[in-house]
Every structure is written in structure tokens, then in C-alpha cells.
């Protein structure tokens, strides 16, 4: 008798808890406050449209919302997440398939609260945790610009998220745990330029969408740049807090501005892979004032060294094989001592890609080769051939081990197992 009553009490308690949790999740998903739009009902001015076009470029909206070879902003590109792909939708003002019927308030709710027009919760594959920081005026300018595009009829594609990640319930729980529709709060102890740089880097340019460290559910902070792995591709967006990784505190301000505008600078570095796309789609469009603001913010980021794993046991035979492979395949361009050729081939001696804690990006670059982004300041970059079909996994480990321990480097050997594990993270 009393056993049954206890069971009943526990069941009631659990039901109350579940209800309470559901109410909390609902509440945390409805913290919307919408500052009034400053735009009247008059047609948008050319200045507003131009401002919107500028913001759309810096935010790289087209980078995701354009299918390869497809019409700009008409959607259809798959965005990889650890839980399956989400397709970026059509942002052109087509009435049936795009944002044709949208109001400024609908658009604000999408950017600021991550909600679709029908109230549907959106996947954070759309970096709205960053865009939430946008001001209402900037959101309105973006909307006016997108509404001025030629409508393209292109239906949206359903996501390929796996169960349970494809449910609204799991998004609601995720949001309750990790998302608040914050606005950007300027730091009164810092100057206007630093604050502008913070607004751009944390918000519109969404650097932390890649550079933040994410937990198992894919959540990371907007002001955290301590290094993140990109879903699917195997690229690491290294820490901007550590000058031995991707931190730029020790670059000259001019070199950093040049790198953000052109993807490479005289001696230091050239952007690779997804970062090259960011330079091409986003930062190269920054005007002088915003470029300086972003540079100032990045150089003032707090320094936090990345933890390095214990170095593996040195393997002299592997390094010797690497030395021979280097002479055979690489030295013609990068030089016997890794010194490179000014203006054509980057030095590998002292390169952070070579010495950073994880060898993942180094292996990717060797396998895929590549071109630095072609920009106005760097119109015809030299290319590097891919070595994926030329070198097997053991040779890759040997070459990477040699590079990481030559010319004064002490970055530790790369084992065959590391190469195999790093490859298994890629799905493309
Ligand atoms: C990293 C890729 C990425 C970037 C960059 C990006 N988006 Fe998106 N966006 C997405 C994805 C993916 C979705 C779909 C989310 C979903 O369906 O759950 C989306 C959804 C949207 C929606 C909701 C549309 C609808 O039909 O519900 C709007 C509005 C939007 N994005 C605007 C923008 C704007 C404006 C920018 C630039 C400031 C931008 N996006 C940049 C990936 C991106
Ligand atoms: C789409 C993902 C992505 C976004 C968004 C992104 N990055 Fe990166 N970033 C990467 C990857 C991957 C690398 C490593 C490849 C490389 O070194 O170029 C990288 C490298 C870097 C480096 C190191 C450069 C070097 O050669 O040492 C800097 C600095 C950097 N990013 C700054 C930024 C800033 C500033 C932003 C925002 C404006 C940003 N990133 C946005 C993915 C991203
Ligand atoms: C035909 C000339 C050529 C050959 C051969 C070549 N590279 Fe490159 N390498 C380049 C060029 C050009 C770049 C810059 C391309 C870019 O920025 O995407 C580059 C970039 C790199 C980088 C990135 C450096 C940095 O700091 O950004 C690494 C690492 C690298 N190469 C390693 C190798 C290795 C290892 C080999 C031999 C297996 C090799 N390369 C063979 C031309 C070459």
C-alpha cells in the first residue's frame, strides 16, 4: 500500500518537474524584445541600400546563402554540422520561396532570435548567436538591401539533420541551455575603435562561429576565439588567443590590416582553406575604419596559450624518410632550409601552420595544395599542387615529422595513427 503511494508521489513529482522544465525551456525561448525599427514606411534611400550591401558583404551572407554556381543569395548551399547538413535558404524577395512576404520585424526575429517567419526555431548552423549582436538599424539596412535584390524562385531544401537533432524540441532545449538573444554591450573601459572591432568580430563577421571552442552540442561563446574544429572538413580554426597558433598580437598593425584585406602579407602568412573564403567573402570588403577597428580588437585579445600534448617518442627513421621526401617534392619551391621565395613561395621555417599544436591543417595543406585568395592586392597568387595521390599516410607522417622538427622547430613527431585519425574526421 505505502509502496504504491510512494510510487505515485514519485510519478507526480517527476510530472511536475517535467512540466516545470518544459515551462522553463519555453520561457527561455521567448525572451524576445524587439527595439522599434528606425525606418519609416518610405522607400529605402540609396544610402540605406548601400549600407545594407556593405553589411551583407562583411557578414558574408552570400557565402552560405549561395549554391556553388547558383544565383547569389538564392540559397541551396549545404552547411555541415556534426549532426548532419542544413541548407541555407533563399534570401531573395521571391514571394513563394524567399523573403518576399517578410516584414522588418520577421527579419529581426530571424537574426536576433533565430526564428523563422512561422516562429520555427532555426538551427545555429545559421550563426545567429553572433548576428543576435547586430543593432536594429544594421538589421534594417540588411533587410532593405536583400529586399532590393532581383527575386529568384528557388525552393528551399529540407535539412539532413539526424534524429533527434532534426526536431524543434531538441533545438528548444539547445537554445534554453546555450542561447540568449543578447545585444552588443559596449565596454565603457575601452575606446570607440576597440568596441567597433568587438561588434564586428563577435557579431557581423562572426569570427567565433569557427574560432570558438565548441562543446559536444556545438555551443561556443561569441567572444571566445580559443580554437575550434570545423564540422566535416577536418580544418582547425586555431586559437586567436595564442600567438603560437593564430593569435595576431605580435604582428604589426599594418601587416594585420594587409592580411585581412588581401589574405596574405609580405612575410607572415597566407590564409588557407575556409579562412581564404572568409577573406574573399568578408574581411576584404571592410572599409578603412572598420579594418583598423577589427585589427585593434584582435591585437588586444587576451593571451591564453593552447595546451600542447606530450610529444611522442622521437622516431629518427621517420624523420629521415621525411627529409628525403622534402628534398624530392617540396624543396624546389620552399627552399632547402624552408626559407621560401619572397613574393612567390611562403617559408616553412617558422610557419605556424607547421609548428602549431595540431598537425591537422599542415596535413590538409600538403594533401590538397591550394592557392592563396586572389585579391586586388595579390592578383595572381602562386599555387601549390595537391599531394594526396602522391604520398601515402606513412609518408605524410614522415614529412610532417621532419617539418615539425627541422630549422629550429620542436613541435614533436606525427605518428601514422595521428594521420589516420585526423583523416577519419573528414566526411568530404
Ligand atoms: C555559416 C553559414 C551562414 C551564414 C554566414 C549566414 N547564414 Fe543565414 N542561414 C544559414 C542556414 C543554414 C539557415 C537555415 C537554418 C534553418 O533552416 O534552421 C539560415 C537561415 C537564415 C534566415 C531565415 C530564413 C528562413 O527562410 O527562415 C535568414 C533571414 C538568414 N539566414 C539571413 C542571413 C543574413 C542576413 C546573413 C548575413 C548577415 C546570413 N544569413 C548569413 C546559414 C548562414
Ligand atoms: C568558416 C570558418 C572561419 C571563420 C568564420 C573565420 N575563420 Fe579564421 N581561420 C579559419 C581556419 C580554418 C583557419 C586555419 C587556416 C589558415 O591558417 O589560414 C583560420 C586562420 C585564421 C588566422 C591565422 C592566420 C595565419 O596564417 O596564421 C587568423 C588571424 C584568423 N583566422 C582570423 C579570423 C578572423 C579575424 C575572423 C573573422 C573576421 C575569422 N578568422 C573567421 C576558419 C575561419
Ligand atoms: C610548385 C611549388 C610548390 C611545391 C612543389 C610545394 N609547395 Fe607548398 N606552397 C606553395 C605555394 C604557392 C603556397 C602558398 C599557397 C597558398 O597560400 O595556398 C604553399 C603553401 C604551403 C604551406 C602553407 C604555409 C603557410 O605558412 O601558410 C605548407 C605547409 C606547404 N606549402 C608545404 C609543402 C610541402 C610539405 C610540400 C612538399 C610535399 C610543398 N609544400 C610543395 C608552393 C609549393
Automatic annotation (TrEMBL):
Residues 47-150, 186-302, 317-407 form the Cytochrome c domain. Pfam families: Cytochrom_C (PF00034). Coiled coil: none annotated. This is C-type cytochrome. Signal peptide: none annotated. It comes from Roseateles violae. Keywords: Heme, Iron, Metal-binding. PROSITE patterns: CYTC. The lineage of its organism: Bacteria, Pseudomonadati, Pseudomonadota, Betaproteobacteria, Burkholderiales. It comes from the Bacteria.
Amino acid at each position: 500500500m505505502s509502496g504504491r503511494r510512494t510510487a505515485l508521489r514519485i510519478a507526480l513529482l517527476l510530472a511536475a518537474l517535467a512540466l516545470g522544465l518544459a515551462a522553463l525551456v519555453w520561457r527561455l525561448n521567448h525572451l524576445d524584445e524587439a527595439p522599434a525599427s528606425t525606418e519609416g514606411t518610405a522607400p529605402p534611400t540609396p544610402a540605406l541600400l548601400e549600407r545594407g550591401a556593405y553589411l551583407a558583404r562583411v557578414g558574408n551572407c552570400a557565402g552560405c546563402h549561395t549554391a556553388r554556381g547558383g544565383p547569389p543569395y538564392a540559397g541551396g548551399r549545404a552547411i555541415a554540422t556534426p549532426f548532419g547538413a542544413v541548407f541555407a535558404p533563399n534570401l531573395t524577395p521571391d514571394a513563394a520561396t524567399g523573403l518576399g512576404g517578410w516584414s522588418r520585424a520577421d527579419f529581426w526575429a530571424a537574426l536576433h532570435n533565430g526564428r523563422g517567419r512561422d516562429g520555427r526555431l532555426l538551427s545555429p548552423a545559421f550563426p545567429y548567436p553572433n548576428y543576435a549582436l547586430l543593432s536594429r538599424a544594421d538589421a534594417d539596412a540588411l533587410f532593405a538591401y536583400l529586399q532590393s535584390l532581383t527575386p529568384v524562385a528557388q525552393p528551399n531544401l529540407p535539412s539532413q539533420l539526424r534524429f533527434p537533432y532534426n526536431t524543434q524540441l531538441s533545438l528548444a532545449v539547445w537554445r534554453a541551455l546555450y542561447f540568449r538573444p543578447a545585444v552588443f554591450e559596449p565596454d565603457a573601459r575601452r575606446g570607440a575603435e576597440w568596441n567597433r572591432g568587438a561588434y564586428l568580430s563577435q557579431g557581423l563577421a562572426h569570427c567565433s562561429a569557427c574560432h570558438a571552442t565548441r562543446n559536444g552540442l556545438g555551443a561556443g561563446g561569441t567572444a571566445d576565439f580559443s580554437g575550434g574544429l570545423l564540422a566535416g572538413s577536418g580544418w582547425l580554426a586555431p586559437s586567436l588567443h595564442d600567438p603560437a597558433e593564430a593569435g595576431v598580437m605580435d604582428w604589426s598593425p599594418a601587416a594585420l590590416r594587409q592580411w585581412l584585406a588581401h589574405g596574405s602579407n609580405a612575410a607572415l602568412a597566407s590564409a588557407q582553406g575556409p579562412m581564404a573564403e572568409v577573406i574573399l567573402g568578408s574581411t576584404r570588403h571592410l572599409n578603412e575604419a572598420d579594418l583598423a577597428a577589427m585589427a585593434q580588437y584582435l591585437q588586444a585579445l587576451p593571451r591564453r596559450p593552447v595546451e600542447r600534448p606530450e610529444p611522442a617518442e622521437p622516431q629518427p627513421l621517420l624523420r629521415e624518410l621525411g627529409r628525403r621526401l622534402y628534398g624530392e617534392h617540396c624543396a624546389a619551391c620552399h627552399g632547402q632550409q624552408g626559407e621560401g621565395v619572397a613574393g612567390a613561395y611562403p617559408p616553412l621555417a617558422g610557419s605556424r601552420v607547421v609548428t602549431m599544436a595540431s598537425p591537422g591543417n599542415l596535413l590538409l595543406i600538403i594533401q590538397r595544395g591550394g592557392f592563396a585568395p586572389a585579391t586586388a592586392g595579390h592578383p595572381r597568387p602562386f599555387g601549390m599542387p595537391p599531394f594526396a595521390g602522391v604520398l601515402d599516410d606513412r609518408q605524410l607522417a614522415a614529412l610532417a615529422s621532419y617539418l615539425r622538427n627541422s630549422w629550429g622547430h620542436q613541435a614533436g613527431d606525427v605518428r601514422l595513427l595521428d594521420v589516420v585519425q585526423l583523416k577519419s574526421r573528414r566526411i568530404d
